[in-house]
Design a protein that fits this description.
The complex is a heterodimer. By secondary structure, chain A is α/β, with parallel strands linked by helices. Chain A is built from 19 helices and 23 strands. In chain A, strand 5, helix 2 and strand 6 form a beta-alpha-beta unit. The chains are: A alpha/beta, B alpha/beta. The structure holds iron/sulfur cluster. Iron/sulfur cluster binds next to loops of chain B.
């Protein structure tokens, strides 16, 4: 056996790509969990087609999963990958553009037969010409080796074919020096009652590992040391799971029942799936007949005294709009979580975008202000959901929580918080009829009382017609309407007193301020760090509270010569900043359904700094 | 740890319903329906029945959508929610699932419930959430000043259909039955006694109770149901269906309904050919029969059936949800968030 050398790497990005039926998401998730437990910092990005099982071998059927991990701080899934695992010709074709020059390709040669090549649009086999000369190509007949590993088992060819992703996984575990245990344990639980599948997968996984160990093809393997994360207990978490848990934590802190009314929609359904698991926690999930019933049922539950939420994506928010207005009018607590995806209309259901900000801020009839909060990292979704709930309950208002497909499906290590240390949420139900008025207001917050059915003596009526101040009776009085419109706006404005001031990352003044919001946080952070390393005067402000904004945002903006607002839309936050603070902020906008790429943004920044823009 | 709702429910559990009178359910708000509107009678009968139900006022909630009927909650001194068009059923569903301890009523109309809220309506029926739905059917849009509705007869001339409407109407009872409702009834605004009886039965039913009430809109569709409600015609045009009783109608109770195959037909009890023993006997537990009876609605040669079409038991959604929660807690213990967060794969960084 040839002597294998071990090299140390600080970080690496691997992309697994294959047919949507090849189990690439599973492979990626397994690699991620193992890597997380090893203590690397990491960030992942699933990239899959909207079709569940697109025709095999086609370009549009390619499903990918990218993981970026390292011994240093990892903020994004990586613009490009160092290693591409391609299970067939289409997977190679679609993903080659993401591979860095000099990167490695591990191909399953069986996926490059004439039919595969034709479906992928290759006129000649790229493995046979010199089109891949910029890369290191490792050719492995994964299909055949998988079949060999299982040859003495009497299982179907289909099952054999479906195990081949574990061969690839075994190879990557070997190459990056990761143990098999996490995946073996997972397999044992998952296929507890299917001993044949269990056995087959274990064999193939080990075969992939052993093959790599013995073959002459791989001369080097790599070590990636654990990252120096702040001390604490960690687990890997996706944004969608973090949102679900954030709501559960808020309900627990508030001593309320959690009610979710929701309708399945990509990429938000995982929140519904997650919360549906927790019956023993008293979580009530209601899969409604449509988006409107999803939010309406939540409004009903909120009237009844629950922490009520509804989860959806952009098109669903469009359908819920009228009901959001009702929640504004009746001033009931509610969180609407929008896991944004590419729009308009059905758009790009499985791709990410930030183009629903203006919808969140303004997309309702009448003057209907509400708080808008955006999560900026997958694990940060927990805090964002918790904070959205806190504000909804304290101010008796619907709150829109924005995440996106990248945050929702992406994952990273999450430091498990101490539940007792989370901020208190203390909603109070009115309990006595003395002096009760449905639309009287708290002196500080302007919140109206939460008087829930079942409380003797508090019988009252609410509704979507304009309310008379204090009594809540229906009122068509012009002066009263003007007053109520202003009161509802003032109530939301006052939340600015209850949220932290915005903090600039980097120097508090200088040549250029990058302002972002939502899922672009990691990319912007990296870009700014690199710019500063180059000696450029660039700082970063990432807004979590989009409405109301922290009190000091205007002040911060004025301390920089230029303000650049990169967004995955055509310039929505920049519009708000320009109109609100009268600053000549400019936008940097790419709307490809993908996270922002650092390199392009850096070019833009340097042009600005050179005075060319 | 109990939730705030559990605390409230427990602390108020002992409070009995007072001896209410109908007046106790009236609010201080001026009732704003047009004088002579059928809604007044429905409000009066509901207020009359409420004291008999033995449910405290503070445990009762009326939820409505938009339309003339939907003003109803403002006039009931209970908890109330006047919501948005078509969504009362969905809002009430969420409320009842969150709060199975409440008695929740939905007030809707033919536009609100059958048109814009049609989807929620059918799904509520099949889910069998323990709500009581009162649908005021006046076969017209009143609040928007007189357009035809999804229950208007075909050819209806209105402002939006000056040449007559083209679409065939829904029969709400058949729609509810077709959506697997467990309690379906019809009553009349001008028959207070009958309406009181039906509302009471609806309240007692466990699961979704659907009551269609023929309601006269004297401004935009006056007399739409007079043939079924007025003295000089109703004996001939209406057959009251009652559990265990043969279907008999006519001024002198001289006519009956008999099944010819699956088709109901009118027979005379006078000409010696048929006797009461030949007549169809109503069974409100029989789903097949309920379809046949409800289907008589749009058949001009048959009298209009009024009464309870169906009243059967089926698992109730909100109770089943509570059962699942109790079961999960028996199996796994009450959920502990701290344990959940550290479950599965986690690791410590020193
Ligand atoms: S418009 Fe018709 S239904 Fe509406 S209140 Fe007047 S009479 Fe009643």
């Amino acid at each position: 056996m040839a002597q294998k050398t071990i090299e140390n790497l600080e970080e690496v990005t691997i992309r697994f790509a294959g047919d949507s039926g090849d189990g690439m998401q599973l492979t990626g998730t397994q690699f991620t969990n193992t890597t997380a437990i090893l203590g690397n910092d990491l960030s992942t990005l699933p990239d899959y087609p909207a079709e569940i099982r697109a025709p095999a071998g086609t370009l549009f059927g390619v499903s990918g999963f990218q993981i970026h991990f390292g011994s240093n701080e990892i903020n994004t899934p990586g613009d490009h990958c160092d290693v591409l695992v391609a299970m067939n010709a289409a997977a190679l074709k679609v993903n080659l553009q993401s591979l860095l020059d000099g990167g490695s390709i591990i191909v399953n040669t069986d996926g490059f037969n004439d039919k595969n090549l034709k479906l992928a649009g290759y006129t000649q086999n790229p493995l046979k010409d010199d089109s891949l000369s910029k890369f290191r190509v490792y050719e492995v007949d994964i299909s055949k080796l998988t079949a060999l590993a299982l040859q003495d088992m009497t299982i179907s060819g289909k099952l054999i074919d479906r195990s081949k992703n574990f061969f690839a996984l075994g190879m990557m575990y070997w190459m990056y020096n990761r143990p098999l245990e996490t995946t073996l344990d997972w397999l044992k639980t998952k296929f507890k009652n299917k001993p044949e599948i269990l056995e087959a997968n274990i064999r193939v996984l080990k075969a992939g590992w052993n093959f790599s160990e013995t073959t002459e093809i791989f001369a080097v393997r790599y070590d990636v040391a654990p990252a120096k994360l702040p001390p604490g207990r960690y687990r890997n978490i996706t944004g969608n799971q973090a949102v679900a848990w954030g709501f559960m934590a808020a309900a627990k802190k508030a001593k309320l029942e959690l009610f979710l009314g929701s309708y399945p929609i990509t990429p938000a359904s995982d929140i519904l799936h997650e919360l549906s698991l927790y019956k023993s926690h008293g979580v009530k999930t209601f899969q409604a007949e449509d988006e409107i019933a999803g939010i309406s049922s939540a409004i009903g539950a909120s009237f009844g005294g629950a922490l009520a939420i509804t989860t959806t994506s952009g098109p669903g928010v469009a359908l819920k709009t009228e009901a959001i207005g009702l929640a504004v009018m009746v001033e009931l607590p509610l969180v609407i979580c929008n896991v944004q995806r590419g729009g308009p209309s059905t758009g790009l259901p499985t791709k990410t975008e930030q183009a629903d900000l203006l919808q969140a801020l303004y997309g309702r009839n009448g003057e209907a202000p509400l708080p808008v909060i955006a999560a900026s990292t997958p694990s940060g979704c927990f805090d964002a959901a918790f904070e959205a709930s806190r504000i909804a309950l304290k101010y008796m208002t619907p709150v829109i929580l924005l995440t996106d497909g990248y945050l929702g499906n992406g994952s990273e290590p999450w430091m498990i918080p101490d539940l007792d240390a989370l901020p208190d949420i203390s909603p109070s139900f009115v309990t006595t009829p003395e002096g009760f008025q449905p639309y009287s207001r708290d002196h500080d917050t302007l919140a109206r009382p939460w008087a829930i059915p079942g409380t003797p003596g508090l019988e009252h009526r609410i509704g979507g017609l304009e309310k008379q101040d204090i009594t809540g009776n229906v009122s068509y009085d012009p002066e009263n309407h003007d007053l109520m419109v202003r009161l509802r706006a003032e109530k939301i404005e006052r939340i600015a007193n209850d949220i932290p001031l915005a903090e600039v990352e980097g120097a508090p003044s200088g040549d250029l301020l990058i302002v972002g919001w939502g899922g672009t946080y990691g990319s912007l952070k990296n870009v700014v760090a690199r710019q500063r390393a180059k000696g450029h005067s660039v700082s970063h402000l990432h807004l979590r509270y989009l409405n109301p904004m922290p009190r000091n945002v205007g002040e911060i903006l004025l301390k920089f010569k230029h303000v650049l607002v990169p967004e995955i839309n055509l310039g929505q936050l920049v519009k708000v900043l320009r109109s609100k603070y009268l600053v000549p902020a400019t936008g940097f906008n790419k709307v490809r359904g993908l996270p922002l790429r650092s390199a392009e943004l850096e070019i833009e920044i340097e042009e600005i700094l050179k005075g060319k823009r | 740890m109990t939730t705030l709702i559990e605390d409230l429910v427990n602390s108020t559990a002992g409070i009995p319903a007072q001896k209410y009178s109908a007046k106790d359910f009236a609010t201080d708000q001026d009732v704003r329906w047009c004088p002579g509107c059928g809604d007044y009678s429905i409000l009066a009968q509901t207020q009359r029945v409420m004291p008999d139900l033995g449910i405290p006022k503070h445990k009762t909630v009326f939820v409505s959508g938009i339309g003339c009927s939907s003003r109803f909650p403002y006039y009931m001194d209970t908890f109330g929610f006047h919501s948005i068009h078509g969504r009362a059923t969905a809002i009430a569903s969420g409320l009842k699932i969150a709060r199975p301890d409440l008695s929740v009523w939905v007030v809707t109309g033919d536009g609100d419930g059958m048109s814009i809220g049609g989807n929620h309506f059918i799904h509520l029926m099949r889910r069998n959430i323990d709500l009581n739905v009162l649908l005021f059917n006046n076969q017209i849009y009143g609040l928007t000043k007189g357009q035809y509705s999804p229950t208007s007869e075909i050819g209806k001339i209105t402002k939006s259909t000056p040449f007559g409407s083209l679409d065939f109407p829904f029969n709400p009872a058949s729609l509810a039955l077709g959506s697997s409702a467990t309690f379906v009834a019809r009553t009349l605004d001008r028959d207070p006694k009958h309406m009181q009886g039906i509302i009471k039965r609806a309240a007692e039913h466990k699961g979704t109770s659907f009551v269609e009430i023929y309601q006269n809109c004297n401004v935009f569709n006056d007399g739409a149901f007079f043939q079924f409600t007025e003295k000089d015609s109703k004996d001939e045009t209406v057959v009251f269906i009652e559990h265990g009783k043969p279907l008999i109608f006519g001024k002198e109770k001289e006519k009956g309904i008999r099944l010819n195959g699956f088709s109901p037909e009118v027979v005379s009890l006078k000409d010696g050919k048929y006797s009461v023993n030949d007549l169809l006997v109503h069974n409100e537990k029989d789903t097949t029969l309920s379809f046949i009876l409800a289907d008589m609605t749009h058949k001009p040669h048959l009298p209009r059936p009024v009464g309870i079409f169906l009243a059967i038991d089926r698992p109730v959604y909100d109770r089943e949800m509570d059962r699942q929660i109790s079961f999960a807690r028996e199996q796994r213990g009450i959920g502990d968030l701290k344990k959940l967060f550290t479950s599965g794969d986690s690791w410590v960084v020193q």
